[in-house]
Amino acid sequence: MKTQKIISKEYSTAAVSPVIFRRLLILAVIGFSAILVTDYSSGLLSKFDSYGFPLSILSYSAIYLLSSTNKVDHRTLLLFSFFTVASYLISVSLYQHLFSDLTFSNSLQWLAINYIIAYLYLEVKYVTVIVISIYVFTVISHFFALMQNYSLAHSVGVALNIAIAHAVCIGLLSSAKRLRVKTDKTEERADTLENIAYIDLLTRVLNRRGIEKVFDELNIETTQTTRYAVLMIDIDHFKLINDQYGHLAGDNVLSKIAAKLNRSIHPNDLLGRWGGEEFIVVTLNRTTQQAIELAEKLKVAISELIIDDIKDITVSIGVGHSSEAESKIDVLKIADDNLYKAKKSGRNFVCYTHVTS
User: Fold this and answer.
1) 254 vs 165, 187, 234, 238, 348, CA distance in Å?
2) Rg of the chain (C-alpha set)
3) Which strands make up the sheet holding 315-321, listed edge to edge?
4) CATH number, domain at 278?
5) The domain containing residue 283 runs over which residues?
6) Which residue(s) pair with 350 in the sheet?
7) What is the pLDDT, as a whole number, of residue 299?
């Protein structure tokens, strides 16, 4: 359970997640299929739609399959799906006005969906350009389509109606977009403040408060079947490193050791800086022997580090296991007591109750 899974919420550039996107694709396929059946049964299906509906259904089915494979960039698929429906809606409306085909339902009322989809599901930074482009193309193309069958005055009147109605729709959606951006920024600031509260800014792992918070949220004590161990890790002779190489070098040692520990533990384990040069690992679903083996692995991994020509960096580790006590406070105390014994045993030691290695 790495740090980013606990606290941080990364600002997403895409407005909709892949899972929800695929659900919407299914809805699109069902929607197009329903309209196809409805228009066919009521005699409103035009020649254009007899090809357009099946092509749209196939397109969205193909996008769904591509999204499921995760081989195509999610944002690319979002744009492709948007332009698929936008091109269809504009084309069918132009077809109706060009050829005066009244054998199917008027499609003009569906054009506003282009803007709704854009504002809801496309990236915020691209929405304005895309919407303006679609708006200008829709108005101009419909004006020229109307001119093929109607007078200039009639064509201008209808085109102006389209322009005004769509402009109002865009204005309302733009306001909603600004609210969305404001909400995203507010959430981002809240996440930053939460990170400051629970993340150690030097090592980028959980601080003591963060570890205690997550430890409490795990509800380990109420789950009798959950085994866990606590590893208290202390850097040996850290004061000498600060005195000999300076505090900046000492800070770098802390950061590198935290990074090494983070790479060496299981993704579901917790790592935090307990204070000063002391770290803590909470590992779940391990036996006592497995916890000791993990501690040995971490001890060896740290001893192999060379940081800015600083060699012989070692750690002492105390292990406490849930089988030894009923409360996590007692398990922490056992680990801390064993850490003290490891330091007294000559450092670069792993100590578990009466077992040392």
Assistant:
1) 61, 30, 11, 9, 16
2) 31
3) 270-275, 278-284, 228-235, 315-321, 350-352, 355-356
4) 3.30.70.270
5) 208-356
6) 317
7) 96
pLDDT, one tens digit per residue, over 192-205 is 666 678 889 899 99
The reply to whether 181 and 269 lie within a common domain is: no
How crowded is residue 289: how many other Cβ atoms within 10 Å of its Cβ?
Answer: 11
> In sequence order, which residues have a C-beta less than 8 Å from that of residue 175 and are 6 or more positions away?
none
Measure the CA–CA gap between 152 and 39, rounded to whole angstroms: 32
Note the pLDDT tens digit of each residue in 316-325: 999 999 989 8
Q: Which of 73, 169, 184, 58 is nearest to 113 (CA)?
A: 169
Please indicate, yes or no, if residue 215 is contained in any of the structural domains: yes
Contact 198, 213 (CB under 8 A): yes
Overall domain count for the chain = 2
Q: Please report whether residue 200 resides in a domain.
A: no
d(CA 352, CA 321): 9
Tokens coding 167: 């402009």
